[in-house]
Amino acid sequence: MTSPMTLSDALPGRAIASHIRIGRLPPASAVIPCLFLVLLILAAIEPRLFTAANPLAIAPREAFQPPGPAHLFGTDQSGRDIFTRVIYGARQSLLLGVGAVAVSMTLAIALGLIGGLGGRITQRAVGWTLDVLFSFPTLILALLFASHLGNGIGPLIIATGIGNVPGYARMVLGQVVSARHAGYVEAARALGHSPARIIRRHILPNAMRPLIVTVTMGIGQAIVWSSALSFLGLGAKPPAAEWGTMLSMGRDFVQRAWWVTFFPGLFIVLTTLSTTMVGRYLQRRLEGRLP
Amino acid sequence: MSSVTVSAAGTAAGLLSRRRIGSAGRRVLSRVLAAVLVLFASATVTFFALHLTPGDPVRAVLGGPTANPSPATIAATIAEFGLDQPLHVQYGLYMSRLASGNLGMSFSQRQPVVDVIAAQVGPTLQLMASSIVVAWLLALASVMATTRRHPLLQGLGSALETISAALPQFWLALVLLAIFAFGLRWFPPQGNQGALSLVLPTLALALPLAGFLAQVTRESLELALDQPFILSARTRGLSDGAVRWRHALRHAVLPGISLSAWAVGSLIGNAVLVEVIFSRQGLGRVLYQAVTRQDMPLTIGVTLLVTLVYILASAAADLIFVLVDPRLKAQHL
Amino acid sequence: MMTLNRWRQPARTTSLLASVGLAALGAAILPAFGADEPVKGGTLIYATDREPTCLDPHVDGDMPQVFIAQQYTDSLVSQDKDGNIGPWLAKSWTVSDDGKTYTFKLRDDVKFTNGEKFNAAALKANLDHIKNPATQSSTAGGYIQQYVKTETPDEFTAVVTLSKPYAAFLEVLAQGFLGIEAPGALARPRNENCETPVGTGPFKIIKWDRQSQIVLERNPDYNSAPPTAAHQGPAYLDQVIWKFIPEPSVRFASLASGDVDVIEAVPPESEAEAEQNPDLKLIIADRPGNPTNGAINTTRAPFDDIRVREAFVRSADISSALDSVFFGRYKRAPGPLSAATPFATPDFKSLYDYDPERANALLDEAGWTEKDANGIRQKDGKPLTIHVPIGDFQGPAERSLWEQIQATAIGTGFDVQLEPLGFSEWLDRQATWNYDVIPEYWNTNTADVLRIVLSSEFLGAAGSGGYHQNASGFKNAEFDALVNKALETQDPEARRKLYYDAQKIVASNFLQVLTFPQSTRLGVYKTAKGVRLEPSLSVTTLYDAWVQK
């Protein structure tokens, strides 16, 4: 639930920065997270590649087995294998992360373009709307929407996504405004290109490029977010293997069975870490190719 | 280079204080007007959002397991809350009372909203302030110590920041509790008396925020260190420390500053979790209960306060921005 | 104030913390463990999970309110462990033959802590206050809906008239929810009385710091202890600090370290540890009433068919689920009345045993014969889906319990959908009958709870969008007649027979998935002695408690 906003404001001019930098990170720091993400995506597509067990099969007598050869990550309060649940959880959690960011970005781009390219009044109206939205604590915004949407993963995606719109929209707006006044846009305009084409070919790509890291980090943040909603008793529908929900559900057993919360938490952190590192690497590559 | 600074400033300083030439008075006035409008809008949005939510506040106050209110009791409560009026009348009544400074009576807390807020605002502001300060200190320490140093050091700093930013607050809070309160017994596990009780809740909120601010600041510090004016400073024979602290940092902190205003709003939401775990008094818990119990006057009251804090924080951020940014300073002063 | 933050201070910390210097002092005095003579004076720190929204138990009426009320109010009558009614503020009483008039002889030597005298007028003021719609009383008010008026022929005689015979009247009067408060204090605006209510009890409310604690002080003139108490006269403790620590692990850790003397709601995962720790003691008692359960909605398909209801009840392996989720600390409820309720019988427990074979046979018989790819049964192309709203007030352990019910029920072909909701929406689903099973419980010290949660009188339409207490929608004339007959019956053995038959009907109609009884679970640190539960609702009383620090 920290912010999905990241480097945006930091790098408004990056898109047009002319220096070329060679990736400072040694390739391993991009390769390892990439590999992790690939495995995760594989797990999301076909979890049975990694485990033969059933993530929902309970075995009350096997509850709270510590990590060991039989259960790599131990078992939970219902005797379910946590490793299996973490693997199966990849699908819901990634879907949640990617979905929520997609919802946020779609709305944010719409607001950002309207605000950034409209006239003075439109621009102000959008800025004002964002100010209003910003004034709602993110969690409360999500709660207000969550209650209208019902429950389960879909509404959770939308609620989490909407909760983060103001942050993203602010960033997009900043990027669009700075791209709009950039030399290449002036040049395109002078060449008589249509506004639609200018938006599509120049403004959007240049405005979006610096947001890649933000978006990739946002995926992890959205998963963290869902765990906060689960903490408050909302969140994904049981018995879904969703990391945030698993993390929060283990809270009543943390003194006797730390592993119930530890492993889902570990995967949230690793996923966020990986998406961020890959995002950074991609960003550097993209910048390196700029004229 | 100039585009970097100017657009960063433009974004951060927001749409309210673009580089308009005008008297300071006019700028202040328009800002205040905008602020009032924002407050009005957020009260309105909250009012209708809560009314559209399924359920009704009377049940939330009188219902639940082991509740058996008589029809007369329910009717009396509906009338007391004014919920028997048409929605537009309720809205009009509420807004006119609000305009005269009356925040009304909380349905669920059985207290005037003002009293609820007055009792809880202190600990929350304290927690928010200490979290932001600590987050900045940690972020700056990490960034200044590791950016553009030995690759290993740099990698370490960057990794720590990324990990911090990825930590779920309540998980972090429980881990901090287990280690420092239950294990080492350095800090009390609960309550909000004394400076020591503030340490763990602050860390739980500040660490993720620090990771986030550090990432932003690191990127812009790297950018700044590549700029021509840094090269020229170096050729003038300034030491590395002087270059970093006096010249580069000034540019590097700008985006983080503008984000800090936003962080204030986000901290309130996160405060819900931290306040519950550490049994702290605070508005976060109040706000969460108010929303889930559809306690309209209390929800609006707290939301208005958060809005106000956000507006003030934005203004403060803009001010700091101007003070820190050499270019804007030249323009404004 | 120095006792507020009394965690022990490690020797190596140089302290900023002079404010908590008492900790050092406390550590210097070696605790003498095992002394049995009550010691006068001192402060006991009590930590609980939930905070009341009003300290007056008449208003609304949630469990946290009755716990605090037990410390500062007395009740009109008392109730012992076996359910027998004894005197308290009433010395004696008579019931008219038609069961509609109760005449109470009151004690003439009791004063409220604000100086007002307790008398018949005070009792009248209390019953009138509870009945008054403006009080917003959901619990106490609900229990005395039959109340008509109180007359006061002399200062210490009160004649209470009811609209109908109500044999449970004395039982509910023994509950802290109907604790007696000072008439002058009750006359203030409701919200003011919520903040600083006044009783005749062993302690008085001094200050309520919201979301933090309530401070109570001894009532030095206390002379009205109930016969259930271990001593007479004023309480031993000078002061009680009643803290709110919502997070279970924090609450338990605060107890284990001695930062607090007593905690309520010991987390199940820590109970075994507490038993092994020589510094700690557990006090556990079931609460009377209808145990925690999932009420089965009989008003719509598929549970309008008794065979499907029984199949569902027998598909749920409650005992195994309780053993794993609650570490073997919670036992399955014996029937629709928890064992602590007067007239409860365990005779029908086996009807609720896990029996998937029988469940399968019943479902086949009921026509749910087809199965889809996931093993979910179908009938006329419709899947056997069960919607269960889960409220945000149900913690992870209770959710896990329902996950296991879900997992065992799928074995017989039920598709159980657990739907996490905020409090208001959960209530909305309840009010609109939009559920197949809804988790609930009802704490009260009388078998009359059966009438409230299962008779047709409580099917709702009580205004405000139809909030109803009978969540299963059960409508059975024979049952209604039994529970109403029981209210007209004063003879205990006759009542027992009537309630036995009523429990039989309830059990054999499969109206609730019974899980565990509600319970009070205290953890007591070695510094605190004499802590006990008032039997009427198994609520903590600190009247007999003392501290040795």
TrEMBL record, chain A:
Record-annotated membrane-spanning stretches: 28-45, 94-114, 126-146, 211-236, 256-282
Membrane topology term: Multi-pass membrane protein
Primary localization class, coarse: membrane
GO cellular component: plasma membrane
Subcellular localization(s) per the UniProt record: Cell membrane
Gene3D superfamilies: MetI-like
Keywords of this entry: Cell membrane, Membrane, Transmembrane, Transmembrane helix, Transport
SUPFAM superfamilies in the cross-refs: MetI-like
Domain ABC transmembrane type-1, residue spans: 90-279
PANTHER family: OLIGOPEPTIDE TRANSPORT SYSTEM PERMEASE PROTEIN APPC, PEPTIDE ABC TRANSPORTER PERMEASE PROTEIN
Family: Belongs to the binding-protein-dependent transport system permease family.
Protein name (Swiss-Prot/TrEMBL): Peptide/nickel transport system permease protein
Organism, as annotated: Kaistia soli DSM 19436
UniProtKB/TrEMBL annotation, chain B:
Pfam families found in the cross-reference section: BPD_transp_1, BPD_transp_1_N
Molecular functions per Gene Ontology: dipeptide transmembrane transporter activity
CDD domains in UniProt: TM_PBP2
Alphabetical list of Gene3D superfamilies matching this protein: MetI-like
Cellular compartments annotated: Cell membrane
Principal cellular location given in the protein's record: membrane
Example of a GO cellular component annotation carried by this entry: plasma membrane
Membrane-topology annotation of the record: Multi-pass membrane protein
InterPro entries, A to Z: BPD_transp_1_N (IPR045621), MetI-like (IPR000515), MetI-like_sf (IPR035906)
Transmembrane region(s): 28-50, 166-188, 194-214, 252-278, 298-324
Keywords assigned by UniProt, alphabetized: Cell membrane, Membrane, Transmembrane, Transmembrane helix, Transport
Stretches assigned to the ABC transmembrane type-1 domain: 121-321
Sequence similarity: Belongs to the binding-protein-dependent transport system permease family.
Name of the protein in question: Peptide/nickel transport system permease protein
TrEMBL record, chain C:
Biological process according to GO: peptide transport
Any Pfam family: SBP_bac_5
Compartment(s) where it occurs, according to its Swiss-Prot or TrEMBL record: Periplasm
InterPro entries, per database record: Peptide/Ni-bd, SBP_5, SBP_5_CS, SBP_5_dom
Family membership noted in the UniProt record: Belongs to the bacterial solute-binding protein 5 family.
Record GO terms (molecular function): peptide transmembrane transporter activity
PROSITE patterns found in the cross-reference section: SBP_BACTERIAL_5
Segments passing through the bilayer: none
Native species: Kaistia soli DSM 19436
Principal cellular location given in the protein's record: periplasm
Identification of the protein by name: Peptide/nickel transport system substrate-binding protein
Signal peptide: 1-34
Keywords noted in UniProt: Signal, Transport
One GO CC term, this protein: ATP-binding cassette (ABC) transporter complex
Domain Solute-binding protein family: 85-449
